[in-house]
Amino acid sequence: MKKIGKITIILFGMMAFYSCTNLNEIILDEYNATTVTDKQAADGILAPAYALLPSIYQHTNLFALTEISTDEAILPYRGGTDWGDNGIYLSLHRHQTTSTDPNVRNTWNLILQGISRSVTAINSLKVNKDPSANLYIAEARGMRAYYNLLMLDLFGIAFQKEDLGDVSTILRTDKAVDYIRAELLAIEPIVETTTGPGRITKGAVWGLLAKLHLNAAAYRDPYGATLSHTAADMDKVIEYTGKIISSGQYALSADYFAIFGNDNHTNKELIFAVDQRAELNGHNRMSYFSLANDQRPVPAYPAANGTDGPAITPDFYRSWVSAYGNVDPADADPRFYKKNVDPTVECVDGNSYNIDRGILRGQQYGLVYQSGAFVKCPDGKFKVGPLYNTRGKAPYPLVIHTETVNFTTAGSDYSTGYRVEKYEFSKKSSSGRNFGEADIVIIRLADAYLMRAEAKLRKSDAAGALVDVNAVRSARTKSAPALTSIDLNTLLRERGFEFYWENQRRTDLIRFGKYEDSWTEKNSTDKNMRLFPIPQTAIDGASNLTGYLKQNPGY
């Protein structure tokens, strides 16, 4: 293996990226290694550092931890049995999670693997002679910093490791914040601006630095009764978000739901995202997870449907109602709902058919499905009508999403709870779960504006904060009405309206001091629940290193 010795890594079976991401998988073995160029090898070495992002951002991993643990999402036992999973989603929502929770374990393992792959890429690229190697090392360091930021946010620790043969140094609180910040600052001058939202760019670095400083108080003192958001941290948030906003590279999307569409890879609002390609690495789980089981969005694939998963809580819905009073939120705010299905039109062309997006309420309509196929009209178009829940025996009840959803028998029926269809359902998904096309947002321009608004507000610049908030509200073609005043409670509500279902809510609630509040089916006030337990399997696996990996308080 002549070339292998030089590259020091064999890559096989790992997802890579193409198109705008422009990293290609190279399979190195004793038969073809001698023909691999340094550039091809560099591409293949870097790709695995990014490749786990789609898995981390699946519905039962990061989403479960960051959304079902909050007042935005609730997942009961549907019909008394479905999504039971030994009660893990009930426990997540109630803040009763244990160290044996499989979703916690899987998320931990994936993030840890991401750190390991990033370290592997850094080490291997150091001996690569292609001019791209220096940039790729910087990107790998950026991904290591990002995975560590996730680890710090969820579990309260970061892993400092420079070589795969070393034992990682575990960092907590100030030391973890300082380490991640130093890594991001080190690569800021090196990374590029034009490699797209699927890779670490200058914009991504600025966004991650802004998030780090915005949440630094919670990271430095995760169990503090009152978080101390320092002026120095807020100044840094303003600095880094200002760089994003003034760069001219990004633009707020005129169509809110286009940000989450199947062709969003080129949407200029995206700064950093999970790069998905349908046939390569894409999953459609964020689209199918909340959707009714009898909703079948793709005329080409009758088997592609929803799964009757999580709904929004009545508490979150009521925040919209209280904001707009006598005006229905769907009429007041373009972020709430986008109507695509007209129930008065009985026959539709399959090529132009799209289901409704946003928060779905009441009777649901869609393609009529019977005996394993869609019903056609006499002219060959697809018939549309009210949906029925066909899980049980006839006569089938209508699919009517209700505001009430909870863990009671009545409140956990298949149709209870308003649902969310934020990401567009993939036109290529044959099962509803696979072949996702939409990039999953990590950082976007609206977040830069609202982070800057929060930093200004915490520095008593309410006027400046209001300008930033209204810049986002007015950006859409159908704009939300401008706010006339702003305070922290209003800003938290605004972040909920803008970023619901985007893995932000748990971190926001902690930062705003609301994570111990009560909401539907959750009354815990235990501050220890701000961090998740370190999986018992991880502690057991490190048992040969005395005192190395200690469980978080309260577990």
UniProtKB/TrEMBL annotation:
Q: Which UniProt keywords apply?
A: Cell outer membrane, Membrane, Signal
Q: What is its main location?
A: membrane
Q: Which Pfam families match?
A: SusD_RagB
Tagged with keyword DNA-binding: no
InterPro entries reported for this sequence = SusD_RagB_dom, TPR-like_helical_dom_sf
Q: Does the keyword Cytoplasm apply?
A: no
Per UniProt, subcellular location reads as: Cell outer membrane
Q: Which residues form the RagB/SusD domain?
A: 414-555
At the top level, the lineage of the source is Bacteria
Family the entry assigns:
Belongs to the SusD family.
Return the protein name.
Answer: RagB/SusD family nutrient uptake outer membrane protein
What lineage is on file? Bacteria, Pseudomonadati, Bacteroidota, Cytophagia, Cytophagales
